[in-house]
Amino acid sequence: MDVFVTGGTGLVGSAVVAELLGHGHTAVxxxxxxxxxxxxxxxxxxxxxxxxxxxxxxxxxxxxxxxxIHLAFSNDFSSAEAVAQSVAEESAAIxxxxxxxxxxxxxxxxxxxxxxxxxxxxxxxxxxxxxxxxGGRGRAVMAALDLASRGVRSSAVRLPRTVHNEGDGGxxxxxxxxxxxSGVSGYPGxxxxxxxxxxxxxxxxxxxxxxxxxxxxTAWHAxxxxxxxxxxxxxxxxxxxxxxxxSVPEENFGPLGPIFAMDQPSSSAHTREALGWEPKHPSLxxxxxxxxx
Length: 293
What we know:
Pfam families: Epimerase. Residues 113-134 are annotated as: Disordered. Residues 3-216 form the NAD-dependent epimerase/dehydratase domain. This is SDR family oxidoreductase. InterPro entries: Epimerase_deHydtase, NAD(P)-bd_dom_sf, NAD(P)-dependent_oxidoreduct. By secondary structure, this protein is of the alpha/beta class. It has two domains: 2-162 and 197-225, NAD(P)-binding Rossmann-like Domain (Rossmann fold); 165-196 and 227-264 and 284-290, no CATH class. Helices cover 40% and strands 20% of the residues. The strands form three sheets. A seven-stranded parallel sheet has the order 3-2-1-4-5-6-10, sandwiched between helices. Helix 1 packs across helix 7 and helix 4 (80-101) packs parallel to helix 5 (135-146). It starts with a strand and ends in a 6-residue tail after the last helix. The mean pLDDT is 94.
């Protein structure tokens, strides 16, 4: 397939593009800057210049492709307003991409987050969260999955809170950056809350499998580690950076504080069985050993 990829030069996106190219597909990557275009072309893909707010460019990319993988998100968590703007921008992009594919039976793989369910690990059958600071992302992805009834082979790969590679990425990467800035490797509450995780290279395999195999209207979990205690994550970060490890107020984590404090383990048992996906790369706690002081 010739696949149009948004976010194709990020931590996850670059791994997805490499996975596609390594399995006989071609890729056209949305590139918003000269640097992004150069990185994508060096990796072996073609580029389409534009950004996530350029809906006409997104439609053109989808129209010319055999399938679409959407990964782009601004990841600006500096304030509640910035998060809301990022979610609104992405929601409009997902809607534009999906509408362009209506009636084509082409695959449309979107990115989502694993849900949280009180008292147990979430599964692929649990609905996406539609409330909280990033609840709009869940609503946008649910709308994309509903396009299954309009001739789109839409699916969602739900990523855990930490997608990592070489000790960086996701919520754990944010904890590391906050620790460097504050001088304390902190965690909210007692730190017993659990976060799921996956290596970016393992997640990339699942995006390819969803593109190739996923039935319309389905959700899949890219979860390798069902749930690591946040205090254990903070302990590795603190040891690698030579910083004290302690509980800090939820407010220290900005608009994501309430999400950071949640216990949110997640299972990928159905995904592994149905799509034959099997993570092979280092776990989060192993990968965090790559953090440089």
